Structure formats: C-alpha cells, structure tokens
From TrEMBL:
Residues 2-145 form the NADPH-dependent FMN reductase-like domain. Residues 181-207 are annotated as: Disordered. One of its GO terms (cellular component) is cytosol. It holds the Pfam family FMN_red. Coiled coil: none annotated. This is NAD(P)H-dependent FMN reductase. It comes from Tranquillimonas alkanivorans. Residues 198-207 have a biased composition (Basic and acidic residues). Transmembrane segments: none annotated. It comes from the Bacteria. GO terms for molecular function: FMN binding; oxidoreductase activity.
Length: 207
C-alpha cells in the first residue's frame, strides 16, 4: 500500500489546512496508508547544527513516504514560514536530499476567493528547486476554507471530491513509478518515525 505523508502548512489547532488533510485522509480510506507530519517542533533552520532528533525524525518520515501531500495556506502572498522552515531542514544536502525525486502533490487553501494560488505556485517552485517530483494536475485550490470546516474536517463535498480524484491519480503514479532516483518506501511492516502524529477529529471546532 502506498504511504502518503500529509504536511499541513499551519500549526493552528483549528487550521483549515489541517482540516483539509483530515478530509482527504478520510476520503481515501484504505486506498493509502496516510500519516500527518508534525513540523511544529522543528527548530529554526541553522546550518551551524543538524537540528537534533526532531529534524532527523522529520527527514526519516519524508524518506519513508512514497509521496508527500502538502496542504498550505497563503500568508502574505506566499508560503508560511513554518512550512518553509521544515522544507529547508529536509533540503540538505543540496540536490541530494530526501526530497530528490520525491513525488509531491500540492494543495492550497485560503480565507479569500483565490484559494491560495500564489502560495501554491511558490511552493511548487521551491520543491522544483530541490529536485522533487512535483505532480502535474489541475490545481487543487480551496477558497473561503475556514467557513467550510465542521468538527475539524473540511466539509466542502465538491472540493474534497475534486481533490480526492487528484490524489487517486497521484497514488497510481507513485505506485507505478520505478524511475531511477526516486527514493523507495520503508520496507513492508515498517512504521513511520516519530515526526508523524495521529489525526484526531476536533469536536465542535471551526477554523
């Protein structure tokens, strides 16, 4: 089964990005082994040290995944600092990092009408710079996302359905992909390292 690592670009408890991750994970069900990354514990990037256990666990989680699914909000016309920080840690060594050849799908959300398209464009540009394999598909953008969250899960049926179809195609691509340079998944029976967490439903919370 394909292992997908979902990465939310927001740390808020009532984040619509995380709510969107939960909705996609629920929609996929048994079609993929899904986990949600924990990037909030990572220190600020500093090339003078290796970041210790949190960074090592984050890199291991990226390497173990068959593919990554980023769901990002848009902050000031671009990606949130916390997400860029996590990416910077995992991008070392340059051009030979765990992101090299790693299949990635990008989704964006926002409270406005554009759905975070500028952040999505910037994130894809960043991923290309690390030689990640950015999945080409119709852009999955979710406008007015905070208003569409119920009990900690995105409740926009049309958006979830559209995004899930993209994810199903992404999974098929990841499963069939045998190109050189694409890092393999963790062996059967292996577990994702400590930088992933359970995805609890948030009772009566709205983003």
């Amino acid at each position: 089964m394909t292992k997908l690592l979902f990465v939310s670009g927001s740390l808020r408890a009532a984040s619509s990005s995380t709510a969107t991750c939960r909705a996609f994970i629920e929609a996929l069900g048994a079609r993929a082994d899904c986990n949600l990354a924990e990037i909030g514990s990572l220190p600020l990037y500093n090339a003078d040290h290796d970041g210790g256990a949190p960074v090592a666990a984050w890199k291991d989680a990226v390497e173990a995944a068959g593919g990554l699914v980023f769901v990002t909000p848009e902050y000031n016309y671009s990606v949130p600092g916390v997400l860029k920080n996590a990416i910077d840690w995992a991008s070392r060594p340059a051009y030979e990092s765990v992101f090299k050849g790693k299949p990635c799908l990008v989704v964006s959300v926002s409270g406005g009408a554009l759905g975070g398209v500028r952040a999505q464009s910037h994130l894809k540009y960043i991923l290309h710079g690390m030689l990640a394999d950015v999945f080409p598909c119709q852009e999955v953008v979710i406008p007015h996302a905070p208003k569409k969250v119920e009990n900690g899960v995105l409740a926009d049926e049309a958006a979830v359905s559209f995004g899930t179809r993209a994810l199903e195609t992404f999974i098929a691509r990841v499963s069939d992909d045998v190109r050189p340079g694409v890092r393999s998944q963790k062996p059967a029976g292996g577990q994702f390292p400590g930088s992933v967490r359970e995805i609890p439903r948030m009772a009566e919370r709205r983003a």
